[in-house]
Design goal:
There is one protein chain. The protein is an alpha+beta fold. 25% of the residues lie in helices and 29% in strands. The strands form four sheets. Strands 1, 2, 3, 4, 5, 10 and 21 form a seven-stranded mixed sheet that branches. Strand 11 (205-211) and strand 12 (214-221) form a beta hairpin. Helix 1 runs antiparallel to helix 2. It is globular and about 65 Å long.
């Protein structure tokens, strides 16, 4: 449990939460969100693998007036797993807004993330707000699309049974998600503790489709809100199972259903209408050197599989206010070295890109896509090598909360 205290400029105290804060935090989350948020907090702090260590609060005049929680996640890039953080359950009392409490809590979460050796933070958040804390949009989400009225269950398919999932189904659901995510270059699976929370929480529910006792499809959707149901994380072994899973959602025809159009799910695209505008995940990178170092196995794999596997040279990247460099030789990426500002790197054979382009370089459009998105990105003479090392990637992230 984090026990350090920081006194803010107005006398409020920023500290790690303690069990005595439970009722106050739950009330705050309910007041600023909904009762399901309070239940989620309790699931997290009561979990033996989590507890209170990731929960921070601001206390003023003896009461909890703001809170935020840091979760541990794993982001897979190729076959390389990165330890990352995710900030959730952020709330501030209306009576104490605009005092810098959320900003202080975000700093607290990021400092905690650093001690846990997270090399980045990834999150879902309200538009623009988290840009203020060093986040940028880098990883595209799958777009929502309306479930067509014709996507009704085939009544003749009596072998498939759809039901609410429970704890005993976690292993089968995780296997299906692993199969679905194998199609993507970048992925975040649910961690074991998150699976435990998901089958208990009220804010969304996991369902499974069974055929002769074997789970062949799964998905997660929200309760109807304003007669709309959001569906995500659909994974299936065949088109019939996909249709059965989704066909039971609105059997009475009274709700509108929007489904994440996840690529590679058998039969899913045929059940959906036109894609809506896709949202993006926020990414924050504090230490590019640590992140690039963690990615060395994947960068070496890409290099050894490329046409430039015999290259032997120094790769230099300037982020204008900082820089890093590494060697490539015999199909391997060498150790990462870092340094201070460097403005003339492009004329000296290196590449230059702004710090807020790093996440897109690594987790999004890749090197070639940066030049159209960032006017201050210059790949220079090492462009071909940059394109080989940093290609555009496909992504699929599973997060505790569903994108809205």
């Amino acid at each position: 449990m984090t026990t350090s205290h920081t006194v803010l400029s107005d006398g409020a105290v920023l500290r790690g939460a303690e069990p005595r804060d439970r009722d106050s935090i739950c009330q705050l989350l309910t007041d600023r969100g909904e009762s399901a948020d309070a239940m989620d907090l309790e699931l997290i702090v009561d979990d033996p693998d989590c507890g209170w260590a990731g929960v921070g609060v601001v206390e003023h005049d003896g009461g909890v007036v703001a809170t935020a929680t840091l979760l541990d996640e794993v982001l897979r890039v190729g076959a390389t797993e990165l330890s990352v953080g995710q900030v959730e359950l952020v709330a501030c009392a209306t009576s104490h807004e605009h005092r810098g409490y959320v900003r202080a809590l975000m700093r607290w979460c990021h400092a905690l993330s650093y001690t846990q050796e997270h090399v980045a933070q990834v999150m879902i958040g309200i538009p623009y707000f988290y840009r203020q804390f060093g986040y940028g949009y880098a990883i595209p989400m799958h777009p929502y699309a309306p479930l067509l009225p014709t996507a009704s269950r085939d009544s003749a398919d009596t072998e498939l049974k759809v039901r609410l999932a429970g704890s005993a189904d976690i292993s089968a659901m995780a296997d299906l998600q692993c199969e679905a995510q194998a199609h993507f270059d970048v992925a975040t699976p649910h961690q074991s503790e998150c699976w435990r929370w998901l089958v208990q929480r009220d804010g969304s529910a996991n369902y499974v489709a069974e055929r002769q006792g074997t789970i062949v499809a799964t998905g997660r959707w929200t309760p109807p809100e304003d007669d709309v149901v959001l569906v995500s994380e659909v994974a299936s072994r065949d088109a019939e199972a996909t249709r059965a899973l989704l066909g039971d959602i609105r059997s009475d025809g009274t709700v509108s259903v929007r489904v994440h159009n996840r690529p590679h799910v058998p039969g899913l695209a045929e059940l959906l209408g036109a894609d809506e505008r896709a949202d993006w995940y926020y990414v924050r990178i504090e230490d590019p050197g640590a992140l690039f170092s963690a990615l060395r196995p994947e960068l070496s794999r890409r290099l050894s599989a490329s046409t430039l596997r015999d290259a032997d040279e120094l790769v230099e990247l300037s982020f204008w206010e900082s820089q890093l460099a590494f060697t490539v030789a015999r199909g391997e990426v060498g150790n990462i070295s870092t340094g201070g500002p460097r403005q003339v790197i492009v004329s000296q054979g290196g590449s230059g890109l702004p710090p807020d382009a790093i996440a897109s370089l690594l987790f999004g459009c890749g090197a070639a896509g940066l030049e159209d998105r960032f006017p201050d990105c210059y790949l220079g003479d090492q462009r071909e090598l940059m394109v080989q090392l940093f290609p555009p990637v496909s992504s699929d992230l599973l997060t505790f909360y569903l994108p809205g």
